[in-house]
Amino acid sequence: VQLVESGGGLAQPGGSLRLSCLASGFTFSNYAMNWVRQAPGKGVEWVSGIYSDGDTYYSDSVKGRFTISRNNTLNTLYLQMTGLKPEDTARYYCAKGTGAQRVGATVNDYAGQGTQVTVSS
After folding, report:
1. What is the pLDDT of residues 24-65, one digit of tens each?
2. Is the alpha carbon torsion for 19, 6, 113, 84 positive or negative?
3. Helix (H, G, I), strand (E, B) or coil at 86
């Protein structure tokens, strides 16, 4: 299994970024996928998850601002982030759920290396 995130960078408060995660080594369409993040000195926080059938779930901290999606043909997971806030600054990781409907921070068996998102003026 390999998960490779991209799309992070520096954004201003109120700005937008789109993260991507290219998956390989497993049947992507069969598994739920999650985005989790970790800010310096803090624990891992679940951000959003998507079932294999496309149902989406969000943490309260990002609901209404972030949109998760997937393209099963391209084996790619996305996270569209809008209305970014300084508290969104973290390293964002794509993670593979252990089943078709496994979303959350503790139900993943693989994660990528992450991509850094920094929100600052």
Report:
1. 999 999 999 999 999 999 999 999 999 999 999 999 999 999
2. negative
3. helix
